[in-house]
Amino acid sequence: MTAAPIGKSHFLNKEESFMYDREARFKMHDTMNAARIEYTENGVMNMAQRRCDVLQISETEALLGIITQYHLPKQFYLDIPDARISKVGCLLMRVNTNNTIQVRFLKMLTKKEMNRIFVFSTHPNHRDMTIDLRAW
What we know:
Blueprint: H1 18-22, E1 29-41, E2 46-57, E3 61-66, E4 75-80, E5 85-95, E6 100-105, H2 111-119
Antiparallel strand pairs: 1-2, 1-4, 2-3, 3-6, 4-5, 5-6
């Protein structure tokens, strides 16, 4: 059995994921929310939690600021406790040198969840936002 040379045209190189390759990109909004990253360490032996800040967010992705450098797995959960949003599945896309990471969500956030995030944000752009209680 022979392997195809790397970089050569092959039918498997044209595989694409609908969610990450063809999905429409949403506009990133500046925000400032306290959040928590949860993941398992050592297989499934213990659950680790790390604090972070949500710096930018859209319906399908976010830019998170982490306080210190630590090893993150490729998949983890994101909790935003102020907005009462928990267990959003995330996929690590990029680790930047300025202590920020870019993640993609495994499900799209709804308009209601986005509104709650903006209401509890401490960013100046969202200072006058209010919660619509009839929508709850």
